[in-house]
Structures are given as structure tokens and as C-alpha cells.
Design goal:
Blueprint lengths: L7 H21 L3 H9 L6 H8 L5 H11 L17 H12 L3 H18 L3 H21 L4 H18 L6 H10 L5 H18 L4 H14 L5 H14 L6 H19 L3
Helix pairs in contact: 1-2, 2-4, 5-6, 5-7, 6-7, 7-8, 7-9, 8-9, 9-10, 9-11, 10-11, 11-12, 12-13
């Protein structure tokens, strides 16, 4: 029997939970500085998070710090545009649960929001945004579950295509299209063609979206290999010209140098 009124571990848990939730209410009200101030205090009451922070591990508090800088939890500003004031608390609560790694609860709420919108064919911004939350949930689980990865990727693809069909003009659709592309892969020429088409759909249909840049980077990174460097060099140079300050450029340059070294080794029989 535990007296929760005096048990230190319970009081610490309760204090941490209160700080999390008060911070969420601050964020919902648009005061992200106050939200971050509350979340920073959580580590004082949670030794696991404190240790993660001390060791600079990626954790809930670091994710929330990023949200405070951006002014939203999931996606970019465009995905969070035109979300109605009445539904925003529920949608952001699902995001908040996802950030705190309460994945099953987040998935359940995203699903309820999405299914309700689909059934009524209304509120496209919220529907696509809730669907995006589900896709991120499936994608995240697939990364850690090799035994279910193929099934989860199929769920991600099916849901993404449904969103793009039902709500093609919703603010979240460029990001949805990018997540579809990132889940599209296969072997051989057919698989490569499908991957290429999926990424090109993102940046050709959404040229002004911030996701266009990432789609172009990921297309090159996914498809360029030792045997087709020359084919993709023009893609790299066009990317460099269009996005001279891109954070992806250094990754592309390092990858290109690696492939060139690999090609020389293969030509030399190494």
C-alpha cells in the first residue's frame, strides 16, 4: 500500500505531469515562451528525462523545445493553417501525446478526428492534418519494428493516397505527399520508377511548399548510386542552384564524394 500524498516518487510524477499540461495550455494560448518555461522544469522531477538532457539524448523535452521555437508541434506552419479554433485543442493534444511518446493514445485520437471528418466530407484542413499525424505514427513505428515494417508502410501508403484523393487542396497535403514518397520504395527498375514519380509529385505539384526542397533532395539521395552518378549530377547541380543555402547540400556533397570513391574502388577491382 502506497500513501500517494507522501510518496516522493508519486509527488514528483504529479508535479512533472502538471508542468507538462500547464505548458500545453500555454502553447494552446499562443504563449510558447511560458510553455517552454514550464517544460524546462519537468527534468527537476523526472530523473530519466534529467539524465537524457544531461547526456544530450534526443528526448521529449528536446522535441518540445523545437516546438516552442517553431510555434507548433507537428509539421510546418502551412500544415497548421486553417485549423478551426474548436478542433485545434483536440488535434494539438494528439500531437502533444505523440511528442510525449504516448503513441497509442495519440493514434486513437488522430483516428477519431480523421474518421469523423471523412465520414462528413468536411473540414479538409483538419482531416488531412489528423491523417498526417496517423502517417507519422505508422512511419515511426515502422522504423523500430522490422517484423511489421512492410505492413506499416502499406498502411502509410494507403492512408496517404486516400488523403490526397479526398482532400487534395488541404494545407497538409504537400507533407502527406512527401511521407507517401518516403514510404515508396522497391527493387529493380519498377521500384525506382515508383520512387522517382512519388518524389516528383511532391515538388511539381507544390513548388512553393517547404517540402519541395526536401523532396528533391530525397529523390537524389534515394536513387543516385555508383552506376548512375553521371545521370544524377545535373540533378545535384540544379538543386545547388535552386537552394544554395540548403541544409541538405552538405549531405549531398558528402554522399557524392563517397559514391565517386566507391566507383574508383570498383573500377580498380577493390
Amino acid at each position: 500500500v502506497v500513501n500517494r500524498l507522501t510518496a516522493d516518487w508519486y509527488l514528483d510524477w504529479l508535479q512533472a505531469e502538471l508542468l507538462f499540461r500547464i505548458g500545453f495550455l500555454d502553447a494552446l494560448a499562443g504563449d510558447w515562451d511560458a510553455a517552454q518555461a514550464h517544460w524546462q522544469r519537468v527534468a527537476q522531477h523526472d530523473p530519466l528525462l534529467a539524465r537524457a538532457q544531461d547526456n544530450r539524448y534526443y528526448n521529449t523535452l528536446r522535441r518540445l523545445e523545437g516546438a516552442s521555437r517553431n510555434g507548433y508541434f507537428i509539421g510546418h506552419a502551412e500544415e497548421n493553417a486553417r485549423i478551426g479554433a474548436r478542433i485545434k485543442p483536440a488535434l494539438w493534444w494528439a500531437d502533444f501525446l505523440h511528442y510525449r511518446e504516448e503513441f497509442d493514445a495519440a493514434e486513437s485520437l488522430y483516428r477519431r478526428l480523421y474518421d469523423t471528418a471523412v465520414a462528413g466530407r468536411r473540414d479538409a484542413p483538419m482531416a488531412a492534418r489528423a491523417g498526417l499525424g496517423l502517417m507519422l505514427r505508422y512511419h515511426g513505428e515502422a522504423a523500430g519494428r522490422t517484423d511489421r515494417r512492410e505492413w506499416l508502410n502499406e498502411r502509410t501508403l494507403a492512408l496517404g493516397e486516400e488523403i490526397l484523393t479526398l482532400f487534395p487542396n488541404a494545407p497538409a497535403t504537400p507533407y502527406v505527399a512527401l511521407r507517401v514518397a518516403r514510404s515508396t520504395f522497391g527493387r529493380g527498375e519498377e521500384g525506382r520508377a515508383a520512387t522517382k514519380a512519388a518524389y516528383q509529385r511532391v515538388y511539381r505539384q507544390n513548388r512553393q511548399s517547404p517540402h519541395a526542397e526536401e523532396a528533391r533532395f530525397r529523390e537524389i539521395f534515394a536513387l543516385m548510386w555508383v552506376d548512375n552518378i553521371d545521370e544524377y549530377l545535373p540533378y545535384v547541380e540544379r538543386f545547388r542552384a535552386d537552394y544554395p543555402r540548403s541544409r541538405w547540400l552538405s549531405v549531398l556533397d558528402d554522399y557524392l564524394e563517397y559514391l565517386k570513391r566507391r566507383r574508383v574502388q570498383e573500377q580498380q577491382g577493390g
